[in-house]
Amino acid sequence: MVSPNLATKKIPTDGEEMNENAKKLFQAIYNDLNREDNNDDETPRIQVSELISKMAFFYEKVRNAVDYEEDHLLRKNAIARILRRQVIIEGLLKVPSTEVLARHLLEELIRGSYLPNNKLPEIKVAEVARTLDKYLRLRTACLSLNNSRLGLKTDINKAKNEIQDNNRLVGWLLTLAACEIEENLGVSQTKRAMVNIMFDSLIQIIKLPVDMPYNQDLEIQIYLSVGRNYARFDDDMLAFVLFKYYNQDWVDDKIDAVFTISDEKIAAVADNITNIRFAIDEQLKHPLRKELDRIVHRYALYFSVLQETIDSNPAKVYNEFKQNPKNFFNAIRKVCNSKYKKAKSRLWRAALRSIIYIFLTKSIFVFLIEIPAINWFNEPLNVAALAINVSFPAVLLFLIVSFTRVPGEDNTDRIVEGVREIALIGHERQQAILLRNLKKRHGLMNFIFNIVYTAAFFVSVYFIIWVLDKMNFTWVSMIIFLFFLAFVSFFSIIVTRGVKELLVVEKKDNLISFLIDLFYMPIIMAGKWLSNNVSKVNVFVFIFDFIIEAPFKILVDVAEEWTKYVKERKDNVV
User: What is the pTM of this model?
Assistant: First the structure.
């Protein structure tokens, strides 16, 4: 493949010419596709038993089924979970070296199919070990400082709070370590380049009104919004971005074999860790967040469509653009249609996973709670109500997914225009995008609106209860039904998010949508509250993480060593 040499070539085609950001993207994708992969057979690689891996892979599938997470977060969350088990639970019995921890971590990830077998070079063990070493040293320094503040006369309740704070701090640091390890293992050069290109583009066009007091935070907030909307970072990964932002030189981008964090640096970070955590939380909850996400979401879609158009063959796409720009934009439309189809397919896969998750973690409690509760309060057993409560969550989610429509041609037209804006000279946005002032609604008006919103919620609940009463539901069955309705209604927002993220044309409001928002949205908000509070208590996750996982992984390790022993004995025969 011939390099397009984007930095110097001119494009004399019908007056259309790529701008510098588009050329950088072409070059980044070209370099990524043509980067030499060191597949030298002599390079030692991490290898595990294929047979034992099937056991671990099955465990991970079951474990993920009872704790719903988006696919792109599964490996990062698995790393955090493994580290918590190794450091917090198993660390009470033994304190292995960081090299041993790193090797066990990578081997577990390979067994769980989060990483390919016999592909990862052994040097990754040392890289991950260095990452773990600095976070474990930071943990020790932070705990030493916290413990030194506890005197002999410390109140018992204060001491208890300090212990809880220490536990939360350790969990937070291990989550940061998991994010750094995930970045080391999985972030492509194209993705890094795209984040920087998007940031450079958006910082030029997004401005604050003169009377808005957040100028010093605008750049980092735009960067975080790019991470949320393009790279799809969750708050843990964004916290890691901010941790690097507040601690320069914490991460070695070049993966230097001799790179290490000095004791002085560790001590300085530990001494300031409370302020750092507070600053990170403030940035994650920043008032500009929602307004920026509304804007950056559109541009993230434009850039991702442009990237997918280039991905197949950068040189070919570039040359076709020079010959006939119309073909390039036809390719953009094809990518849009392909994304719509893939989003619908992913939607159904996510719905299936969600139905399994809801059944395993919620529907089963109908049998565990509803029947004993009915007997306890001497209520009659309504078999029909029981059947509805068991099947209702899956049926409701199925119906919501069925009625979720992919975007139409008007949406594609807007994306094409967006790609023109970000990629072609002469089509750049001429006016800056001014963020809207964050005006607080008058207290009395806000109070009245809250009353109306609450009233709409109770009207909806009253109507539902009236219908259920006509169906002879007991009050216990009604409560369970309402719980599922609220929870699944909110959960459907998460499941259908992949399709809605492709929308850049806002839907027009009508009377039906207004009534749905008025009477159904309060139920969704109730579901959000339940999800953030009650539903976090997932007994199945507790059973897996604290009862099953540790002994199961020990069994897997022993089985792995046994297979190695048998192989060694077999090799000695020859």
Answer: 0.80
